[in-house]
Amino acid sequence: MKEIELKIPNLGEAEDTEIIEISVQKGDILCKNDPIIVLESEKAAMEVPSDFDGTIKEIKVREGDSVKEGTVFAVIEVEEISQHKEVKQETQNISDKKITVDDKAQKIENFSIDFNGINAGPAVRKIARELEIDLKKIIGSGKNKMITKDDLKNFIHSNNNIQKIEYADLKSLEAFGDYEIENQSKIRKAGAKNLTQSWQSIPHVSHFEEADISKIEKQRKDLNKISSIKITPLAYIIKATSLALEKFPLMNSSLVDDGKLMIKKYINIGVAVNTDQGLVVPVIKNVNNLKIGQIAESILEISIKARDKKLMKDDITGSTFTISSLGGIGGAAFSPIINPPEVAIIGVSRAKNVAKIENGILVDSTILPYSLSYDHRVINGVDAGNFMTFIKSTIEKGL
Ligand code: CAO
pLDDT of 267-290, one tens digit each? Predict the structure, then answer.
C-alpha cells in the first residue's frame, strides 16, 4: 500500500477559496471521482473529487479553511502502483523535469495575472480586497499593464466617493425582539458586492415590453410531447434574444479601458440560476448556433451543475449578455441589475392568459412580460426600443 497526498487542483481563481464542506472522514473507502471536499470561491461552489480508489488516512484541513492550488487537504492510501507503471512514471518525471526551468519562468511571468486578465501583485490585491476596490477599473502603468501601488493610490485619491456596502448596526436592532444570525455564503456576499457596485456605477434604465407567445406556446407544447427533456418558454426567449444580439451588436458589448466600446463577435448568454448558495450565472456559449431543443438541454445541464456545485471556471465566464427568468415563480414585471462588464440584461416574468381582440374577434392569448435594463452610457432609449421590439416580433412570428 502507498500513501498519496491529495492537493487542491488549479482553480483558475485560486485566491480566497474556502472549504465549505468536507464530504468524507478518516477510514472512508473511496472510488475514483467520489467527492472529498467542496470549495467555494466568489463565483461558484465546486467539488474536488478523488483521483484514486483508496482509503482516507488523514484529513488535513477543516471547514472554513482558506486554500489555494497545491494545498494538501487529505492523505489517501492506495494500492501500490505496479513496477511497470512506476518505470513509466519515472520516465514521465524525467521529461517533466526538462520543462521545469522554462515552466517556472513562465509561471513567474504569469504569477500576477489572474483569469480576469488583472495584472497585480499580492500586496496590491490585498489592499484592493480590504478596501473593496475592483481592480478591473484600474489601468496599470507597469510592465504588461501591471497595476502598481501608485496606480492604486491614484485611483483611491480620484475616487474618494467610492461607496461601501451599507449594513445595519446589529446593536441598534437587538432591543426589539428575538432573532437569529445566519452567515451568508461567499456567493451571496460576492453577489451583494457586485450588484451594489453595478447599481452605483452604471446609470440603469429599464424598458418594459410584452409579447404574445400563443404561437410558440403551441409549438412548445407539441414539442414537449415528443421531447425527452422539458422545454420551457425560456429556451425560446434565449433564442430570440440571441437573434436580436446578432442584429443589434451594441447590446453585446462592454465599455473597456478608458471608455472604448468592445463589440463582441460571439454570443454567450449567462442565465441566472437560483441555488442554495445564492444566485449563480452559468453561461451558454455561442447560443446563436443552437436550436431550441439544444438550448433547453443546455439550460437543464447548467442548472443541474449549478445546484450540484459542479460548475467549473469555464462554465461561469465569458458571458456577453445575461437573462434572468422569474417566469417559473411569478410576478408581473421587474427591473434586473446589469451584470458587468455587460451593458444590458433581460428579466423575464410570468406569462398570463388574456382575452385579446384580433381582427374584431375575441381570442385567447398568452402574453409574456419581459424587461430590459441597460447601461445608458452605451445604449439610448431608441436602441433599447428597437431591440425589444425585434424580440417581440421574432417571438410573435414563431421560432
Ligand atoms: N411564464 C409562465 N410559465 C413559465 C415561464 C414563464 N415566463 N417560465 C417558466 N415557466 C414554467 C415552466 O414551463 C415550468 O412549468 P411546468 O412545471 O408546468 O413544466 C415551470 O414554470 C418551472 O420552470 P423552471 O423555472 O423550472 O424552468 P425555466 O427554464 O423557466 O428556468 C432557471 C430555469 C434555471 C432559470 C430557473 O429554475 C431559475 O433558477 N430561476 C431563478 C432565476 C433568478 O433567481 N432570477 C432572479 C435574479 S434577480 O435577483
Answer: 999 999 999 999 999 999 999 999
